[in-house]
Amino acid sequence: MTGLGALFLSAAFVDNMPLTLFLGLCTFLALSRSPEAALGLGVAMTGVLGVTVPLNHLVYTYLLAPDAWAWAGLPEIDLSYLSLIAFIGVIAASVQLLEMLLDRFLPAIHAAFGVFLPLLTVQCAILAGSLFMVERSYTLAQSAVFGLGSGAGFALAVAMLGSIRTRLAYADLPAGLRGLGIAFVLTGLMSLGFAAFAQMAAAE
Amino acid sequence: MMEVLLGSAVIVVLVVGMSAGLLLLRRRLLPDTGLDVSVNDAVHLAARRGATLLGVLHDAGIGIPAACGGSGTCGLCRVTVTGAGAGTPQATERGVLSASDRRAHVRLACQTRLRGDCAVRVPDDILSAGGGVVCTVASTRMLAPLIREIVVDLPQEHPTEFRAGDFMQVTAPPYRLDFRSLDVPTAFADAWEISGWREMRVASDAEVTRAYSLASRPEDAGRAVFNIRLAVPPAGREDTVPPGIVSSWLFSLKAGDAITLSGPFGDFHVQPTGRDMVFVGGGVGMAPLRAMIHQELGHGTQRHIRYFYGARSAADLFYSDEFTALSTRHDNFGWTPALSEPAPGDRWHGATGFVHEVLWAEMSRHPAPEECEYYLCGPPVMISAVLATLERLGVEPLFIFYDDFGA
């Protein structure tokens, strides 16, 4: 398997954002009540991560990295402490763009998101994607694959949880567990399942 | 120094550049174009993208009722909207509209943001009722410590036809009021002093509209009669919760003052059947029931009518003499006022207890309580207690009609 393919699978399964790293749980739990909304969230996450991680890679490499300004004769300048504010700006702009595109072309999904789409701006999984990119020194191609892979992993996990929660409509749950309670239990069980992928990766 | 300048420049250029790009894209993707809203295929209104349908209709003087002020909770602004421009129902509408409503393209006008051209169907009487009409207050009087009767002269050219049970919308202008300036009759002055209502003050800097049921009798033709209950804050929270904006303003009105009304509207009406009718009211729930009872008895109906009315003490009971007189004049009308806490000085000989308890005691002796029609109007707590009592009596929800003040 090529390096990029392995990176995609590893980002989607081994380092699954909600189930292994427990990032982005708020939208993960809130929007998994119906499979349609869950799938919409998954697509949106994949889109936003796939766009923001390579964009932030460009911003970081050419503006903020320790030797980014060496060509201008300023090798000592290191703006990497500005990466948080720059990344959040780029993410906010991308989410805004996504919201406008959905409003224009897919109004049904836009109505299903409601207030949750703007919340993606400050979603921890999305910022984490960009921060991991810096920490692990990915190249541009790797950043794009990593972003898409994390997004796909999130989409898979949230679609699975959405489908299970729909089936639970027929289950006779104790009153205290209905709703979010059982969703937390499910998330824990799914997380145990995804731990198996980490074992497979470690065994190689 | 170089680093500070360069860092600031990078962030500023990045943010400004992205904002400019988004603004340009927004103009391309979501053009701010004018839309066409056709109302009942007769009227065409121009609107802007993103405006709420309720706002567009109100600006055109089409007085769709909206008791909650457009927050999507009262469910009065139902309209049928067709066309791509209406979008899909919002999450706020799902709580108010049933699945069959949604299939029939019923929407809440206040929650419909326009995205394109659309066609709206509103009841014809709303289209003809037009916008607000300025009327004159004919008289006001206090009926109970917190309830005031306000009689309004309707202008000659305004259609005075209304069905008993209808309501009208009252628009209060911006005002400020110190409750010390209200004249309270001596009979109720003590209650006002003890409760500290005289200390209240209220200010409003915008026009506010609320719906009030009509209490007009057939002999009040050309006039609109309202029973207004002053919405006072819960005891102990006078400093944090302001008194009702429109009800306070209505309490300050005197004969000869101007008042803006629109309507009448409503879907709480007497059903054209032959069944016995049981009316249950509390507080200012009196208003629509009084209109219905007077209208039915005025038509010379042969249906049996019983009226249960709950109040706290004799001071809160109003129109009692009027209904006692009606019950002696008409054999088919029975009047049962019930006091939950009669004061020692009331010398009360009538029914005691909450109105749903009195209703249970009386109706469980009725040969067939499930064959009667029930008309309820009162505070939400009373309505839910009476609904539970009626379920115990075996009454199908089909035969129960109620107005819980849009709660």
UniProtKB/TrEMBL annotation, chain A:
Mind listing the UniProt keywords for this protein, alphabetically?
A: Cell inner membrane, Cell membrane, Ion transport, Membrane, NAD, Nitrogen fixation, Sodium, Sodium transport, Translocase, Transmembrane, Transmembrane helix, Transport, Ubiquinone
Q: Which Pfam families match?
A: Rnf-Nqr
GO terms under cellular component: endomembrane system; Gram-negative-bacterium-type cell wall; plasma membrane
Coiled-coil boundaries: none
At the top level of its lineage, which domain of life is listed?
Bacteria
Show the stretches that span the lipid bilayer.
6-31, 38-59, 79-98, 110-134, 140-164, 176-198
Where does the record place it?
Answer: Endomembrane system
Membrane-related topology note: Multi-pass membrane protein
- One GO BP annotation here? respiratory electron transport chain
The molecule here is called: Na+-transporting NADH:ubiquinone oxidoreductase subunit E
What species was this sequence derived from? Tranquillimonas rosea
UniProtKB/TrEMBL annotation, chain B:
> In the UniProt record, does the keyword Iron-sulfur occur?
yes
Which taxonomic lineage does the organism of this UniProt entry have?
Bacteria, Pseudomonadati, Pseudomonadota, Alphaproteobacteria, Rhodobacterales
Gene3D superfamilies attached to this UniProt entry: 3.10.20.30, Nucleotide-binding domain of ferredoxin-NADP reductase (FNR) module, Translation factors
Gene Ontology BP, a term: sodium ion transport
GO cellular component terms, semicolon-separated: plasma membrane
Summary of the function given for this chain in its UniProt record: NQR complex catalyzes the reduction of ubiquinone-1 to ubiquinol by two successive reactions, coupled with the transport of Na(+) ions from the cytoplasm to the periplasm. The first step is catalyzed by NqrF, which accepts electrons from NADH and reduces ubiquinone-1 to ubisemiquinone by a one-electron transfer pathway.
- According to its UniProt record, this protein's enzyme class is translocase
Q: Which SUPFAM superfamilies match?
A: 2Fe-2S ferredoxin-like, Ferredoxin reductase-like, C-terminal NADP-linked domain, Riboflavin synthase domain-like
Show the CDD domains listed in the entry. fer2 (cd00207), NADH_quinone_reductase (cd06188)
InterPro entries of this UniProt entry?
A: 2Fe-2S_ferredoxin-like_sf (IPR036010), 2Fe-2S_ferredoxin-type (IPR001041), Beta-grasp_dom_sf (IPR012675), Cbr1-like_FAD-bd_dom (IPR008333), FAD-bd_FR_type (IPR017927), Flavoprot_Pyr_Nucl_cyt_Rdtase (IPR001709), FNR_nucleotide-bd (IPR039261), NqrF (IPR010205)
Q: Does the keyword RNA-binding apply?
A: no
Provide this UniProt record's keywords sorted from A to Z.
Answer: 2Fe-2S, Cell inner membrane, Cell membrane, FAD, Flavoprotein, Ion transport, Iron, Iron-sulfur, Membrane, Metal-binding, NAD, Sodium, Sodium transport, Translocase, Transport, Ubiquinone
Question: Where would I find the 2Fe-2S ferredoxin-type domain in this sequence?
Answer: 33-126
User: What family does this belong to?
Assistant: Belongs to the NqrF family.
The organism's place on the tree of life at top rank: Bacteria
User: Per its record, how is this protein called by name?
Assistant: Na(+)-translocating NADH-quinone reductase subunit F
Task: Read off the PANTHER family from this record.
Answer: NA(+)-TRANSLOCATING NADH-QUINONE REDUCTASE SUBUNIT (PTHR43644), NAD(P)H-FLAVIN REDUCTASE (PTHR43644:SF1)
Kindly state which reaction or reactions the protein catalyses.
a ubiquinone + n Na(+)(in) + NADH + H(+) = a ubiquinol + n Na(+)(out) + NAD(+)
Give one GO term, molecular function aspect. Answer: 2 iron, 2 sulfur cluster binding
Q: Where in the cell is it found?
A: Cell inner membrane
Q: Which cofactor does it need?
A: FAD
Stretches assigned to the FAD-binding FR-type domain: 130-271
